[in-house]
Amino acid sequence: MTVHMRGIVKQFDATRALNGVDFELLPGEIHALLGENGAGKSTLMQVLSGLYPPDAGTIEVRGTPVRFRSARDATRAGIGMVHQHFTLVENFTVAENLALALPSQTPFFLPRRHLAAEALALAEHLGWKLDPNTPVWQLPVGVQQRLEIVKVLAQQPEILIFDEPTAVLAPVELDELFSVLARLRSEGKSIVFISHKLNEVMRLCDRVTVLRRGENAGTVAVADTNPEDLARRMVGDQAERELEAECPDAIPAPGAGAGETVLGIKNLWVRDARGVDALRGVSLELREGEILGVAGVDGNGQAELAEAVLGLCRASRGTVEFHYRNGARGTPVRSEIGYVPQDRRREGLVPSMSVRDNLILELHQEPGASWGPWLRWSYLNGRAAEMVSAYDVRTASLAQPAGTLSGGNQQKIVIGRALDKQPRLLVVVNPTRGVDVGATAYVHEQLVAQRRRGAAILLISTELDEVIRLSDRVAVLYEGELMGIVPPSTPREQLGLMMGGKRTTDHALA
Amino acid sequence: MPSRKWASVALGSLIAVLALVLVVAVVIALVVLALGGQPGEALSAILTGSTGTPAGLTETLIKATPLILTGLCITVAFRCGIWNIGAEGQLLMGMLGSAATALALPPLPPLLAAPLCLLAGAASGAAWAGFAAWLKVRRDIPEVISTIMLNFLAVYLIEYLVRGPMRDAQSINDWSPPMPEWTQLARLREISGIRQVGGGTLSLPNGQPVLAFGLDAGHLHLGVLLAIATAGAVWLWLARTGVGFRIRAVGFNPVAALTAGMPVSRTVWIAFLASGALAGLGGAVEQLSVISRLHRFAPGEPGYGFSGIAVALLAQLHPAGVLGSALFFGALSAGCDRMQRVAGISFHVAYVIQAVIVLLLACLPQGLSRFRARHKTGN
Q1: Interface confidence: ipTM more than 0.85
Q2: N or C, where is chain B less crowded by C-beta within 10 Å?
Q3: pTM
């Protein structure tokens, strides 16, 4: 047995993240760690990788009891972790980031050429190309993850932990990652694969351990189980509801009469931070009561599209026109738009401020929220309390810092804030990234309810399933250009081809 | 629940203050020993000069006044994520602005003249901060660098003016004419006719006075009340208004603030200008009450702006805390003044203590937590 963890307990202030968890990892297996957000998956693996000492319990690695005092101890014991939130220095190049992982190979003068060669070799071994001299901030997220993996492999671990590695990947990248994981397994590495996606677990893994609320809800071989069983273990009694969420029927299309135009984008060009054209002549129209899905591999102009609509970045060419309720037209005003940004912890929340403060981040600027310069705190507190219950934010109190909530609950704050103002236009970017099954279903229900209300929704997502399931029309972005706008019933293969750069003229909706 | 929370906060604060006083006493004793003095004598002089007598308490309040205002200056700026190291320069510009206005005004009723001069001081401080704000917002130039440089400019601008255009021709010294009487902040005695308020002293068994229950109203000026009222106003402003809320949000996470549709640049402008105005007001109060002429300072003097950083950090960037910590540093300063007179130990020991306190705060696990919070995100 490669790893044997017994009775692991970990307490964070008031919450017991791990409550006596047992976990075994065999040589040469891919072992899934499955569970909802907040079930303790990441915490358990952070204990194994030396980031947190356990409050109780023992860990054995290859039969030897170990006590890790730091991540470095774990690295020495042959354990490497690919974190969900990358541990890269953005201003450093690929090779320099690799140097950070290899202290033994970094004497006083940095052997640049050697490191560059090393980076290339490691990447090539996995069938990837990495330019050693590119600064990390210039790389798309998917490529940053490759670097993160290469960095960990450079330390030649026997045990690899992947913390929700698929959260940031598009389908094509996903396939590549899975083949890399399979190759690592064939080389004899033991792999822990943290996920909350049943289909990924079924497809890739050998065994699976389900965590529920900090406890082990069973370890089984994937061959001996099925998605329904795993879902039941994950969420307990509510399994049936959750299962529906995992594979619901396609949401019925609205009456063909989507309403008036809300947003008109014409020939939009936007440059990104590097001065490269991230959007190249995008035109689309969005109407009341429809969801326009924007699919595509991450880093093909999605972020810029959202930011241009929001007015957060400037168009170098083209126009974004918003049609107001009173018939006026003009640049969209932020207060008219509900926005769920891609990176909730950076763009969506002020983690050190309270749940209440985060819920009123936009609301407090509305006319009714203040009396002269004074905020009407009694009103705002009431509204915040309403949102907490309406959007099911699980928090001890309104005063709790938002950063201490689980990812799903943080996302509920961001989404609740966007929906609560009943916006005419809703821009939603990867709304269920890193969110558990229950919360995902919830978010989807909310979006559909908004469409029913008549909101125009721009759903930008790298989860193709999500786009197909929710959208009335699907637009595909590739390298900043629209490859076409097609019905969601379009065959997946065709959508996949479009995401890879094949144009499709729009027959059905022309 | 709220009452229990307040009780625990109050108890915690009391313990913290006692611990602080103990640490400070030990450090003072060590420094005085190193300087070849008598620690007992020095500490006794500090107590007498700061809290032990009505005159000492009054001196403490007077010393605390500019510290309250510069502490608030730093609080507002740091809360907004603006690293304004320029309180000193903004304070000097407040002195200059109020002095120039006072000297330029025709004789007016004091009720009109003093507020005008104070406003001019605040406006000058804001304008000085405005340079740095413009450089930050428009040119992306770090305010740490620009405000430090502006501090030097303020020192030498005043030096130039008091040697040249503003020099008092009647005097052999390089300084301005004295501030006209009608621009001076009224002393309480002049308003109320009272010389001393309260009485009685708490003493140690050996006769060492520790805490007087009275004030020498003769020296106490209205600026003290103004500073305390300003602290209340800043508290309300940060906690209760939309602008205050945005200042705090921008300070913690400007990206999220921008994404939520807040006018981030305008918020930075407002906070930076308000911060400068507070320091400028501190300078004006000092100029119109304690200092009678505008004169030159050596770089680093009078130091209220730099001490404001220590005041704000000890206060955990809370306006009410600023009152307490400014009083503490005011007492230290008043006490060290007396120590110099009585025991012959330089009052610069006060600055040594101040620096030690800031370093200690940085070492405490909770210390400067506000600054770490921005780098740390929970999951």
Answers
A1: no
A2: N
A3: 0.75
